[in-house]
């Protein structure tokens, strides 16, 4: 943000990610915010802007209203929370009430930026989307990354560039096709890759095991075999499964129907694997022993049904047990979201990074959020940054009129901006911020704070992320 023009008296448009969970309506009929973590995470950026004399207006999406005005997705419940945390900051109505947001309509961008002097993107969780509010304003206004966006990109950059070892990644989730490219990318970086969730069944089938009625992608069997061969004993899979009987249904918030039993890796016909078993929980916890860097993204099972939540909870507890505690518990402070962000900091047990809504929800349910080093506000954005090394919103910021010009490389090479002590190594970091960003390696000398360079090697953007 230091690369923005003087802000005293200026109006700044702040893209935040206030897509927070809402609870039942209060007595006045307005829904309540159940978790204000994402709002508090943006406070360092808001404070910096207001301290420099800016008048801040926040824009955000909330839920998926599909381009139509829908009172159920109004930002009204957010207003009292924002007023309490950041008095005087304005909040516009849900961006996605207008179809121009998701369509990246230039006319909608013009409407957004009208009357503003500068733009700041602090919405890491949506920076992988080519939406109007993410990629449009930097082409029209002086623009910069906010403190949260800076921190998120730097942590992932350090994670892939110079993690302390052993480096263990735990990846869960339903479909292997959604994360296969990420697994390949991680396999180039990690010492051990632990795979759970529904995606594990495609790997198990590739090994010749019976998967019953479990989620399994036949079209990905061959690619799974190739990954297994490349990984060798570095890829850890479940050794037992918690399965649901034929005809049983998965509950949401409460137990569903049907019988549940623990099986081996061969699941009976008609039964559906929905969680890792007790032996696998032990195995996965053992995989973390001695780790110095840990990344966890995605649940180990259908944890919305309490019968299949034990695996995800066990992993959450294991990650918390090996990791450094956050240096401060309040996400509103300058070092809160991502305390201990220097990967491999001296004296730490393990640097633990958790991303993805389900993984973070599991931590919160267990009261373990403050027991990990970094809790990311992004799910899909985290994975895409790992996979592709860049995001549409970052590219847009690098192209802004006020962005420092690339130095130390050919002009056409990835549009890198700002100095970076590891620029020649494709470090993929976000500027410098000596005040509140802990940095590994030698101290950086640049004064640039805008997004600088990509994370690792560039990769083609796949259609599924758009």
Helical coverage, percent range: 25-40%
Under CATH, the topology of the largest domain can be stated as Rossmann fold
CATH architectural group of the largest domain: 3-Layer(aba) Sandwich
**How are the strands ordered across the major sheet?**
10-9-8-14-15-16
Q: Biggest sheet: strands, sense, closure?
A: 6 strands, parallel
N/C terminus separation = 27 Å
Number of strands: 16
Describe the structure.
The protein is α/β, with parallel strands linked by helices and 466 residues long. It has two domains: 1-148 and 380-466, Phosphoglycerate kinase, N-terminal domain (Rossmann fold, 3-Layer(aba) Sandwich), CATH 3.40.50.1260; 158-376, Phosphoglycerate kinase, N-terminal domain (Rossmann fold). 27% of the residues lie in helices and 13% in strands. Strands 10-9-8-14-15-16 form a six-stranded parallel sheet, sandwiched between helices. Strands 5-4-1-6-7 form a five-stranded parallel sheet, with helices on both faces. The longest helix is centred in the N-terminal third of the chain and has 15 residues, at 147-161. The relative contact order is 0.13.
């Amino acid at each position: 943000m230091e690369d923005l023009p003087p802000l005293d008296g200026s109006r700044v448009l702040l893209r935040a990610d206030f897509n927070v969970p809402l609870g039942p309506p209060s007595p006045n009929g307005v829904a309540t915010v159940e978790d204000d973590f994402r709002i508090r995470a943006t406070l360092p950026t808001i404070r910096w802007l207001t301290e420099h004399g800016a008048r801040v207006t926040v824009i955000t999406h909330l839920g998926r209203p599909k381009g139509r005005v829908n009172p159920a997705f109004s930002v009204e419940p957010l207003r009292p929370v924002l007023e309490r945390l950041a008095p005087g900051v304005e909040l516009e109505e849900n961006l996605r009430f207008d179809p121009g947001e998701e369509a990246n309509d230039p006319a909608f961008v013009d409407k957004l930026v009208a009357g503003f002097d500068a733009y700041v993107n602090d919405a890491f969780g949506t920076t992988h989307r080519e939406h109007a509010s993410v990629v449009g304003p930097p082409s029209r206004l002086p623009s910069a990354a906010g403190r949260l966006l800076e921190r998120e990109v730097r942590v992932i950059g350090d994670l892939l560039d110079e993690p302390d070892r052993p480096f263990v990644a735990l990846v869960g989730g339903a479909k292997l096709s959604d994360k296969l490219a990420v697994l390949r990318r991680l396999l180039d970086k990690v010492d051990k890759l632990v795979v759970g969730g529904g995606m594990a069944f495609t790997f198990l089938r590739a090994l010749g095991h019976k998967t019953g009625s479990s989620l399994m992608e036949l079209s990905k069997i061959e690619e799974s075999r190739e990954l297994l061969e490349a990984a060798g004993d570095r890829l850890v899979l479940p050794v037992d499964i918690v399965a649901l009987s034929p005809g049983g249904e998965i509950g949401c918030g409460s137990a569903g129907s049907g019988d549940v039993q623990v099986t081996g890796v061969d699941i009976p016909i008609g039964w559906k694997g929905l969680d890792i078993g007790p032996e696998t929980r032990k195995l996965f916890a053992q995989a973390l022993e001695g780790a110095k860097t840990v990344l966890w993204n995605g649940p180990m099972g259908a944890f919305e049904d309490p019968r299949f939540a034990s695996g995800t909870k066990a992993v959450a507890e294991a990650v918390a047990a090996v990791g450094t505690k956050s240096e401060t518990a309040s996400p509103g402070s300058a070092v809160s979201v991502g305390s201990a962000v220097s990967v491999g900091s001296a004296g730490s047990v393990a640097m633990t990074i958790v991303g993805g809504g389900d993984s973070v929800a599991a931590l919160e349910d267990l009261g373990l959020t403050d027991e990990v080093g970094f809790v990311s506000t992004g799910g899909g954005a985290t994975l895409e940054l790992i996979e592709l090394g860049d995001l549409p919103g970052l590219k847009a910021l690098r192209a802004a009129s006020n962005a420092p010009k690339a130095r130390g490389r050919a002009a056409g090479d990835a549009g890198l901006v700002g100095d970076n002590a590891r620029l020649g190594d494709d470090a993929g970091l976000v500027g410098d911020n000596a005040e509140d960003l802990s940095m590994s390696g030698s101290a950086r000398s640049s004064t640039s704070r805008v997004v600088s360079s990509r994370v690792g090697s560039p990769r083609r953007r796949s259609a599924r992320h758009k």
